[in-house]
Amino acid sequence: MALSERQQRILEFIRRFTLENEYPPTIREIGAAVGISSTSVVNYNLNILQREGYITRDKEVSRGIRLKEGLKELASRHIVKVPLLGRIAAGLPIPVPDSDFSPFAGESVELTRDIVKEEEGIYALEVRGDSMIDALIHDGDIVVMKHQQEANNGELVAVWLKDEKETTLKRFYHEGSRVRLQPANPTMDPIYVDASNVEVQGKVIVVIRQLN
């Protein structure tokens, strides 16, 4: 029997909640998450999930729902390993090889699929510099990028300055025949370059703060 959309949402919430907390949700928590006010309706759908072999239940305890799949298998389906490809300047552009896009010896950043919806064209870079602090990006933070070669005005992108052989992380503004690369730091001036000299490498989709 195919699961209904509601049952799929309930099952996905149970999986995500269990993965994040290492214990299952209550019926009321499930209802609140999927927009069902009646515990009897939640219970009805849980009975179907149990009948179809997705979960087991101990109705004598409030957190008696158990997934048939273990946490290890669950985690492997919900974790995306994003390759850490190098460093990028959030300051004055820095030349290669210091800011290149070569791999960090196979290093990666692990994120859940609710943060990164897709894997194709996704990579991570370590930030150097403080030109983007007003965008809450600090020296040592990790930015997760989606590869693309075009950008809309105002987007936060990694760009390659072809003549200078340098990379930098800035907000992008196309202004006629030139591009303005705008820092998010009031103490720093924008960088103006000829549009033909700019190659967009990707757009920032996630920032990972390094609290230490």
Task: Describe the 3D structure.
It is a single chain. The protein is of the alpha+beta class and 212 residues long. It folds into 2 domains: 5-68, Arc Repressor Mutant, subunit A (Orthogonal Bundle); 78-208, Ribbon (Umud Fragment, subunit A). Helices cover 22% and strands 34% of the residues. It is built from 4 helices and 12 strands; from the N terminus they run αααββαββββββββββ. It has helices spanning 5-21, 27-34, 39-51, 71-78, and strands at 55-57, 65-67, 79-89, 94-95, 108-112, 122-128, 142-147, 156-161, 166-175, 178-182, 191-194, 198-208. The strands form 2 sheets. Strands 3, 4, 5, 6, 7, 8, 9, 10, 11 and 12 form a 10-stranded mixed β-sheet that branches. The chain has a two-stranded antiparallel ribbon with strand order 1-2. A hairpin with a 7-residue loop joins strand 1 and strand 2 (65-67). Helix 1 packs across helix 3 (39-51) and helix 1 (5-21) packs across helix 4. The protein is elongated. Residues 96-103 have low confidence and may be disordered.
- Our count of domains comes out at 2
Helix content: 10-25%
CATH topology of the largest domain: Umud Fragment, subunit A
Q: Which percent range describes the beta-strand content? A: 25-35%
| Arithmetic mean pLDDT | 84
The helix-strand sequence is HHHEEHEEEEEEEEEE
Tell me what the CATH architecture of the largest domain is: Ribbon
Based on CA inertia axes, which overall geometry fits? elongated
pLDDT < 50 stretches: 96-103
Instruction: Output the structural class.
Output: alpha+beta
